[in-house]
Amino acid sequence: MAHVVVGSECWPFTGGASAFEVEGATVREVIASLDARFPGLGAFVDRKMAFAIDGEIHQDAWFSPVGADSEIYLIPKIGGG
Amino acid sequence: MSETLEKPAAPASGLNVVGTRPIRPDGADKVTGRAAYGADFNMPGQLVGKILRSPHAHARIVSIDTSKAKALPGVKAVITGADFPPFLADELIEGGEAASSMRDLAWNVMARAKVLYEGHAVAAVAAISNDIAEEALSRIVVKYETLPHVIDVEAAMAADAPLLHDHIFTAGVETKPDKPSNIAQRHRFARGDLAEGFAAADVIVEGRYTTKATHQGYIEPHACVCAWGEDGRCDVWASSQGAFMVRTYCAKVLGVEISDIRVTPAEIGGGFGGKTTVYLEPVALLLSRTSGFPVKMVMSREEVFRATGPTSGGVILVKLGAKSDGTIVAAEVELKYQAGAFPGSPVGPGAMTALACYDIPNFLITGWDVVTNTPKVAAYRAPGAPISAFGVESAVDELALKLGLDAIAIREKNAVKDGVKAAYGPTYRDIGYLETLAAIKDSDHWKTALKPGQGRGLAVGFWFNVGGESTAAVHLGEDGSAVVVTGSPDIGGSRASMAMMAAEILGLPVERVRPMVADTASIGYSMLTGGSRTTFATGMAVVQAAEKVVAELCARAAKLWDVPVTAVEWRNGQAVCLDAAKDAKPMSLATLAAQSARTGGPISAQVALNAQGAGPGFGVHLCDVEVDAETGAVSVVRYTAAQDVGRAIHPSYVEGQVQGGVAQGVGWALNEEYIFDANGKMENAGFLDYRMPVASDLPMIDAILVEVPNPRHPFGAKGVGEVPIVPPLAAVANAVRGAIGVRMPDLPLSPPKVLAAMDGKAG
Fold it and tell me: Is there a contact between A75 and A57 (Cβ–Cβ < 8 Å)?
């Protein structure tokens, strides 16, 4: 299972929990797993957060692969000037 | 002259075009005045659109009487917030860089019940001449009930502060507050045990630093021409960082279908993040629908200052703890950023980047997004990062002084590298930070001693860089030329890099490739140009489209030679037959293009993608200053900026990005600031009073390009436009501290303040 770490943006959904193991072979499947565990978190993550999968940032990319031992950090989506 | 600019054109190993310095494709248009910017476009029968703006920083709109304006001959339309669709419930829309609040966007374009800053739009007119439009504005009667206002970010956070909105409840805290507040959001990043970290420290430094709101300062004011057709189809000609962004935002604000709007991008005279939203376009469209004529709107410079997004002013609290050998063991950073009239300051990225250059085991970073009675902030190069970096890099400078370490040594000791977890979470890979520090350490600048009276400062900076959605098409002409079409407005030289990458793949001289930026009906969707994403993401689409064209060229050659396509290779712009029995001479792109009608039709390809895996960038800046003892004026006398750029596609443009970012950062450090009077009115809304640096204020800025390629890009490119504005604020301030012996924590370091600091020291 992938190891997912979330920041303060997600705490209202996770009750303050920051790290957990989640099933999913793609970003989309991980989002579904997150939503099943913390209702509402999936939609929030889909809209607001980017996935840093093993150090590489994926934004709005449902089918980016997630490895069985991947480390995923959910970070606010990034824009710029 | 820059060390790097003197280098001869030399491509990277194995490349013929990428890495060289051809003449820029937009150069002739720009130097001859042929380039058509937003204000240069005109339509037959167009009207002049003008906006009436609030004279108050905060007021309730009691009534608006437009009858006298409407009665003025020559006035064709008058609109107010009541003419726009209502947005009673909020909705998030995607179309810019991230999801935005529909209601906030619409209410910023035209005020509804309240005005939230001086300059907030309250009504608009369209008339047959500029004079009549101005006269019509003067005949609109708005009754206001003025309200207490708040500009300062910490004052806005106070429990008894004037409240801008009654629907904002601080998000990102454990328990939802029961009262509304000006604090829209708290961001928090943490690791380790902060108390334990500080307990283990031998040395602790603490500081409070402040920055003022500054404007992006693009030369070209916002401008557009909008035409609403009788069939409901609309055309927009506008200068922006994203034609598709303009299309989406206009459609949502006006409640029309996206498919009914076509946006044609004009040449853009600077954006720097400030043109990633809409101000005039929805207004001009509604005026056009109301009047039945095309409407042209052009902001004055004063309007640009008063009504378009500057970046935040901020307060940065920093506490660092280190061992006596310089190892930083604990850091606490608190950031308070002005968002302007609506939530959405860049405090999030400010917090994420604050410690991104440092490997620290225990830290807590807290960021506060705070609404204030000032124009809604807009993105500005590396949004949020220069502000937090100013505090952190000043504090690291203090720490180095306390420990007797040099500015590079303390940063080398605590530097992030591949495999280290960034403070914002992910594990770094393929980064070039240590190489960038080494480049400065090896520079002539670092090795050259200061002259008497001078001060030297060093600071570092980070930006993520991003990818995202882009579309590109490559079309071959029958004469063997190529056209590269994208939907990414060129704000920093991207047309040159697109042409060069296509030329590299096709094997053409770059002069035979014409890069174009198309309208929203002529190319597939592309996110706006921003976040240093275009050369990476759109470039990836261009490369893939060019590769598809090459594959088609090889297929045509295979047909002509009657060999399988696997027996054809593309080498230096020619198809080469690998079947020796055919004794076939290589066929050039021009030859194949000339026969395309007979071999299957025109040759072109389009690729649409969502690019992932952008590589982050790091910059290390070194600045020398002199301070006039009589006036307090600071002169930057030498400046060197090194940056990991992945691979410089067109090194001159990359150096230009670095130099431009430094120039803007120096202005932020020394002179630029929004100044408000007691009523919340901006007092310096013009370039005479808002002092940006000009060429004569600056020395040649030496750019050192460090190339640690990003393996996810075909040529290794990383974004380059954001990083260069991150370090200068602290690099300059650290240099001033070195010159006068006093730490000045409050920007800008304008002459009166520097003089006062010097006098205070002397006293």
Answer: yes
| Phi–psi pair at B454, nearest 5 degrees | -90, 160
Whether A13 and A74 have beta carbons less than 8 Å apart is answered as no
- At A22-60, the pLDDT tens digits run 999 999 999 999 999 999 999 999 988 999 999 888 999
Q: Domain of residue A65: give its range.
A: 2-76
Q: What is the CATH number of the domain that holds A71?
A: 3.10.20.30
B15: in domain? no
Which of B612, B712, B713, B722 should we substitute to test contact with A (largest number of A Cβ atoms within 10 Å)?
A: B612
Residue of A nearest to B380 (CA): A81
The Cα-based distances of B306 to A56, B310, B340, B674 in angstroms read 39, 9, 12, 10
Separation of CA B321 from chain center:
33
CATH of the domain at B156: 3.90.1170.50
Structure tokens, B629: 């003892």
B401: left (phi over 0), alpha (psi -120 to 50) or beta: alpha
B604 CB-near residues (< 8 Å, 6+ apart): B473, B474, B475, B476, B549
Q: Do B238 and B273 lie in a common domain?
A: yes
Give the separation between CA B108 and CA B306, rounded to whole angstroms: 12
User: How close does chain A come to B166, measured CA to CA in Å?
Assistant: 21
Hey, is the C-beta of B162 within 8 angstroms of any chain A C-beta?
no
Q: Which helix (H) or strand (E) holds A45?
A: helix A41-48
CA distances from B183 to A11, B188, B341, B459, B762 (A): 18, 14, 12, 30, 41
Number of Cβ pairs closer than 8 Å across A and B?
118
How buried is B146 (Cβ within 10 angstroms: 0-12 exposed, 13-18 middle, 19+ buried)? middle
For residue B665, which of B732, B568, B617 has the smallest C-alpha distance? B732
Q: Positive or negative CA dihedral for B192, B195, B196, B200? A: positive
Which candidate, B231, B225, B303, places its Cα nearest to that of B264?
Answer: B225
B28 located within any domain: no
Dihedral over Cα of B674, B678, B680, B684: its sign: negative
Distance CA B460, CA B396 (A): 10
Question: In angstroms, how far is CA B418 from the centroid of its own chain?
Answer: 27
Enumerate the β-bridge partners of residue B47: B295
B519 found inside a domain: yes
Q: Return the number of other C-beta atoms located less than 10 Å from residue B376's C-beta.
A: 26
pTM (predicted TM-score): 0.96
Q: Which two tokens stand for residue B218?
A: 């693009």
CA gap B462, B620 in Å, rounded: 9
Residues B249 and B127 in one domain: yes
Query: Within this chain, do residues B447 and B563 fall inside the same structural domain, yes or no?
Result: no
Token output for B51: 């906006």
Q: What is the DSSP string of B365-404?
A: EEEEEEE-SSPPP---SSTTHHHHHHHHHHHHHHHHHHHT
Strand partners, B143: B63
**E strand or H helix at A13:** helix A11-14
For B91-98, what is the mean pLDDT? 71
pLDDT bucket at A8, cuts 50 / 70 / 90: confident
pLDDT in tens, B695-713: 999 999 999 999 999 999 9
Tell me if A32 sits within 8 A of A14, measured CB to CB. no
Q: Residue B202's domain spans which residues?
A: 38-392
Same structural domain, B502 and B627: no
HSE, CB side, 13 Å, CA atoms: give it for residue B467: 24
Interface of A with B (CB under 8 A): 5, 7-9, 11-12, 16, 47-48, 52, 54-61, 64, 71, 73-81
- Alpha helices in B404-510, H assignment, sequence order: 407-413, 433-441, 444-447, 494-506
Domain count, chain A: 1
A81 in any annotated domain: no
